Amino acid sequence: MKLMFPNGEFTKEELEEIIQIALEMRHRVKEQLKKLGGMEFYDVNFSYIDLDDMSEHYVSVPEQGGGKLIPDGMCNPGQVYTVSRGKSGMLGVFRLESQMLPGNGKIERTGLGNDSKCKEAVNTAFNYLKRCDRKSRRHRGCCRQ
Q: What DSSP assignment string belongs to the chain?
């Protein structure tokens, strides 16, 4: 900002353009980190809020395939989108992604931060699915309670 507008004077449109470029560049870095580190760098949506009308604007990169919060069409295997309230009470869209990797049948959670309730919910779902898997092997049927 200081390089482009050293006197500190700029229009809302000029500021918007700079914010979009900055978010796009940050998004590109995040996408490259995701390619290197897999789920450690989980998918995020970069956006800004216009304080005049409180509208949220999402910034995407062309290779991302659109600027929608939830892309059109089928998800990749192991992905699901859900809506829930965060700690602040604000609604949010969350993408849950699972991968099956060789190992000992344990779960590794990434991208949850320090939210103990969220971790507990993930553990509960994992244990339920694990139990269903054992039941279906034993009885060759559905998992029903």
A: -TTT-TTS---HHHHHHHHHHHHHHHHHHHHHHHHHHGGGG----EEEEETTTTEEEEE--GGG--S-SS-SSPPPTTEEEEEEE-TTS-EEEEEEE----SSSS-----S-TT-HHHHHHHHHHHHHHHHHHHHHHHHSS----
Q: Which two tokens stand for residue 20?
A: 């979009």
What pLDDT, in 10s, does the model give residues 41-59? 666 678 889 899 998 888 8
Pairing of strands 79-85, 91-97: antiparallel
Amino acid code (one letter) for 63: E
Rounded CA separation 72/66 (Å): 9
